[in-house]
Amino acid sequence: MMQQLREAAAYIENTTGSFGPEFGIILGTGLGALVKEIEVQHSLSYADIPHFPVSTVESHSGKLIFGLLAGRKVIVMQGRFHFYEGYTMDQVVFPVRVMKLLGVQKLFVSNAAGGLNPQFNKSELMVLTDHINLQPSNPLIGKNLDDLGPRFPDMSDVYDEHMIRQAMVIAEDADFDLREGVYVSVPGPMLETPAEYHYLRVIGADAVGMSTVPEVIAARHMNMPVFAVSVITDMCTPDRLKKVKLADILEAAAIAEPRMTMLIRELIKLQ
Ligand code: HPA
């Protein structure tokens, strides 16, 4: 595994020269527009990078983008890998590990999620303060990659408290409600039954989605500070539960996208 990661990183370094990224960004479903704000210097197709998994979902375009956001050097994953697509957890987190080898210092993650907290509304943003992993696996199972991190990494403070506070100030200055809460990651790809939504709320989650937690676990294993934000694309409380279509999720994500983009750009400026 380490050799595959090093080969991917070496290919990227050969192709992008001495780019030297500072921050990594993973964009979720329907949240690709941040890329329009980036002064792109290099754009690599996942398919061209050795050992990189290749995206299968239509709404994810599958490119690694290198450029400047607010004057800072970033790598953006446009399109991510989900466990439900049939990838192993090692594949899902492969790009995050490569980012670390390329020198990335902090990770920023976005996702689309269902709202479980009745105080939330569709198209609002929620900063993750904690998570619950209900995926059937995680990327640290198996032989530990000692070069990346310890066998039993701490998870008592997964989401960087300082960046959470900075994000709250940015939202307050921009005059929008930024929610805070616990994200639960489920395997999918089916959405939840009413009984499952109820269960997820009872165990302490504010939002539910099918991504993020594997990548965040891999990042924290490597001791990378993480900031993550969910766009609430549909409300899943008993009174507001509706049949969900991908088109509705994309529409709700599109409404929230300018705010999400602004939040990540302003937050990166402050690092
Ligand atoms: N459940 C799981 N994942 C999701 C949802 C949901 O309701 N909405 C958007 N992603």
- For the record, the count of structural domains works out to 1
Small-molecule binders = hypoxanthine
CATH topology: Rossmann fold
Distance between the termini: 31 Å
Q: How many β-strand stretches?
A: 9
Shape: globular
What ranges have pLDDT less than 50 throughout 5 or more consecutive residues?
none
Determine the strand fraction and express it as a percent band. 15-25%
Radius of gyration: 17 Å
Assembly status: single chain
Instruction: Give the count of helical stretches.
Output: 7
Would you tell me the structural class of the helices and strands? alpha/beta
In CATH's first tier, which class applies? Alpha Beta
Give average pLDDT, whole number.
Answer: 93
Could you give a short account of the major beta sheet?
5 strands, mixed, barrel
CATH superfamily: Nucleoside phosphorylase domain
What is the topology, as strand order, of the major beta sheet?
Answer: 5-8-7-6-9
Query: Could you say what the CATH architecture is?
Result: 3-Layer(aba) Sandwich
Could you give the order of the helices and strands?
HEEEEHHEEHEHEHEH
Helicity level, as a percent range? 25-40%
Structure write-up:
The protein is of the alpha/beta class and 271 residues long. The chain has a single domain, classed as 3-Layer(aba) Sandwich (Rossmann fold). It contains seven helices and nine strands. A five-stranded mixed barrel has the order 5-8-7-6-9, surrounded by four helices. The radius of gyration is 17 Å and the shape is globular. It starts with a helix and ends with a helix. The mean pLDDT is 93. Bound molecules: hypoxanthine. Residues 112-114, 186, 191-192, 208-210, 233-234, 236, 249 line the site of hypoxanthine. The site of hypoxanthine has 13 residues, from strand 5, strand 8 and strand 9.
